[in-house]
Structure formats: C-alpha cells, structure tokens
Amino acid sequence: MAETSLGRFSIGVGDRFAHQARAQLRACVQAAEAGVLVVPVWNKSNREHTIIGSEPAQTRAAADAAVQALRWPQPYFCDADHINLNTVGRYLEPCDFFTVDVADQIGVAAAQREKETFVRRHSGLVGSIDLHGVAEPLRVTREDLERVGQKYLAAVLRAGETYRYIEQAKGRGTFLTEVSMDETDAPQTPAELLLILAALADAGVPLATIAPKFTGRFNKGVDYVGDVSVFAQELEEDMAVVRYAVDAFGLPAELKLSLHSGSDKFSIYGAVHSAMMKMNAGLHLKTAGTTWLEEVIGLAEAGGEALALVKEIYTEAYAHRDELCAPYIAVIDIEAARLPRPGDAQRWTAEQWMGALRHDLHSAAYNSSLRQLMHVAFKVAAKMGPRYIAALERHEDVVAENVTRNLFDRHIRPVFLGAGATSNVTFGARTPEAVRH
Fold first, then answer.
1. How confident is the model at residue 420, as a pLDDT?
2. Does pLDDT of 426 surpass 50?
3. Alpha carbon of residue 38 to chain centroid
4. Mean pLDDT of 299-323
5. Is 14 helix (H, G, I), strand (E, B) or coil?
6. Where are the domains of the chain?
7. How far apart are CA 110 and CA 125, in angstroms?
8. Which of 146, 237, 297, 433 has its CA 20 to 30 A from that of 337?
9. Quick one: average pLDDT of 274-293?
10. pLDDT tens string 201-217
11. What is the dihedral of CA 178, 183, 185, 191, to 10 degrees?
C-alpha cells in the first residue's frame, strides 16, 4: 500500500475497464519531469463496478502493475469512490482512499439534541471572520448555524460512522478520507462549508479532502456551464475557509478541496490554477469518464474492426439512450436532435468520429450531445465483455497515446503547471525523486 500522504497536488483518474493505468501514470510522470508532483489516485465507484462486473481488487492490481512497470517512486492511492456503509465492505482490503458519500443524508434532520449541541458548541463563530487572502471578511450568522445543523449535520454524523467503520477494519492512519458533499441540490456557501468542517472535526473525521458542491453545472464529460468569475471567487473563498478550519478545528494540515469535475471542465482550469497559486493551496482534481472516452476515440482512430466496434456501441446506446441516461439525468444535457441517426453514423469515417467525440470547442465537428451519450454508454461496452477488452489490447498503443496526451495536456498541465507550461523532457530521462512538492 502507498504512504498516507496525498501531497499538495493530486488527481483522481477513472479507469473503468482497468486497462489504462499505465497510460494514466505516464501523464503523472510527465508532470514530474516538468517539475511538479501530481499524486495519482485511481477512483472507481460502486455503481461502475456493478455495471461492469468488476471488483475493486482489479483496480488495485492495475494500479500496482503500472507503478511497478514505470518505477513510480512517489505515493499513489486506490479510491473507493462514492461509498457508504452499505457498499464499503468489498473495498476495505484493496483501497487506501475512501470517498464517503453522504448525499442520501443531506436534508435529513439530525436529532434535536445533536443540533442543539452543534449550535451551542460553535456559536462563537457567529460574526465576522478574517480569511487569509480574501478581501471581505466571512460573515457567519446564527441562521447559518441553524441551517447547517438542520441540513448537513445528519450527513456529517453518518460520515463519522462510516469513517470509524473503516478505521476499525484497517487501522488509524493507514488510509485517507474524503467526504463528498457535492451531490446535493444547491452549492454550499463558504460559511456553510466552514460549519460543515467544524462538524466533521467534532465527529472525529481526519479529512484529507472535502468535496463541496460549487456554483454552476458540472455535466459529465463536457465543459463547465456557468459564470467562471463567480466560480473563481467561490473557489478562492473555499480555499481560505479550508486553511482557517485546519487551524481553528485541528483538522489535518494537508486538508484540501476536492473538485469533482465530471471531467473536462476546461474553461475553469485557468481559474483553478490561479486560485491555487494565489492562495498557496492544494487541490485534488477528480476525473472519471474522460479516460473511457479517450479509449473510444483511440479505437475510432485505429480504424477497421475497432472503428466498427465504436459504431456498434453507439448504435446500441442510441437505441437504449433513455435507460442509459436515467442514472445521470441530473448531470447531462443531451439535445436529441443533435444525435446522428445510427444509419448515418455507420457511414462516418474515423476522422468524423474522432472529431465529434474529442472535446475541442474550437472544432466545428465536436458534438457535445454525442459525447455525453457515449460517456454513459460504457455499459454497452461492458456487455460486450471479452470482445471489447480484446479490442483495447489489440490497439493498446494508439489508445494509450490518446489517454496520456489527454490527461497531461488537457488536465494536468493547465491545472497544476499552468496553461503556458511546457515539458520537453523525454520520458524516463529524469527520475521523479527530484520533483518539487
């Protein structure tokens, strides 16, 4: 297992079919060669394991094999993504990072005595709080306290219960904990985030990361929808809140925000990098389906039977689009009229498929509706079983090239190095031991 230190910068990478761990790790190696350590965390949700028919041990095995093959000397983790008390069991042995999802408890009322205790314990926070790096003081009201106690306290208590269950099984200090608060109806204000962190400290959860819900839409596999300037201000304030909470509540010094991006939020990446530099803060960027989509793009690029397989996946996805989209309906916006009819898509060339699927807002060929449908169509590939896996293995080189280039150039570089950063170092020419933390 890895060391239990996530460092300042880290990236959660989904690998739905457990075949791209090496390609993903190459992107982190490239970041190390450019002088920045970005710790990889392989994440896969219980829903994805269930759909694909995989086990968390497979994700761990793929990560371990990639680390050994590339001789990665830095920390790395395997994330039990979006687990709860009912689903955590099979993750206990292979995982050392646990994203505790308490969405089903948000809005559930805690016991009156617990709410009263919380409000009384933190009544001293009511008033104005000066936050480092933020011009305006944070204002916390009695109403904020009451609202957090009413809406979030039950969720926090469930997070504490889940943490203690994992700790009893694995031992204290042997794993990292994230609490996910992003799957709720409205974004948390900075004042609410502060009070949530206070409650998590009360519950004894030694947080490594916290995933709040931010303003705007974070749809799967496509760009951010919202006012980037509003997001940027919110992010800076939340980073300042995290720093304050570490000192005020005794939370772990390395605590940082986790941005559940839904993948490919390119328009906010510049703001994310600027905020980290301004606030001297860290970040955990969690991606997921972007790797699966790069697999599909790579197969299209390979042509021949691989391209035919992509067309088959789309035809099946189109026929069952309502069923495939239902679990993701809150985080996708597909315009049915923009989806090509399967008969027409069957005649598309490899270049047409690559152009439609590759997330390039400057390309007239890019089709965000098609991309979102293919994002949720991994269930179709899973049903193909060995046939899909065989295609990945036959065309490993072209698929891996797409995965690595996408993850480094379009995610790691703009977020962690800055948009103007370049890396001309040949892979393997410099060992990662010398990277800057």
1. 63
2. no
3. 14
4. 98
5. strand
6. 9-290, 293-400
7. 21
8. 297
9. 96
10. 999 999 999 999 999 99
11. 10
To the nearest 10°, report the CA torsion of 401, 402, 403, 404: 50
**Given this model, what pLDDT does residue 419 score?**
73
| Cα-based torsion angle of the residue sequence 167, 288, 187, 241 in order, rounded to the nearest 10 degrees | 60
The pLDDT score that the predictor gives to residue 433 is: 34
Long-range contacts of residues 365-370, Cβ cutoff 8 Å, at least 24 apart = 367/338, 367/340, 368/222, 368/338, 369/334, 369/335, 369/336, 369/338, 369/339, 370/314, 370/338, 370/339, 370/340
Phi, psi at 27, each rounded to 5° = -65, -40
Q: Look up tokens 């969405």; give the residue.
A: 103
Residues in the chain: 437
pLDDT number for residue 425? 32
Query: What topology does CATH give the domain 9-290?
Result: TIM Barrel (3.20.20)
What's the half-sphere exposure (Cβ side, CA atoms, 13 Å) at 259? Answer: 33
Q: How far is CA 152 from CA 108, 210, 244, 248, 303, in A?
A: 8, 14, 20, 20, 50
The whole-chain average pLDDT of the chain stands at 94
Give the three-class secondary structure for 381: helix
pLDDT at 122 exceeding the cut of 60: yes
Determine the average pLDDT of the residues in 190-194: 98
- What b/e sequence results for 302-328 when a residue is b if at least 16 CB atoms lie within 10 Å of its CB, and e otherwise? bbeebbebbbbbbbbbbeebeebbeeb
Rounded distance between C-alpha atoms, residue 428 and residue 407, angstroms: 18
Residue 437 has pLDDT above 60, yes or no: no
The answer to whether the beta carbons of residues 374 and 321 sit under 8 Å apart is no
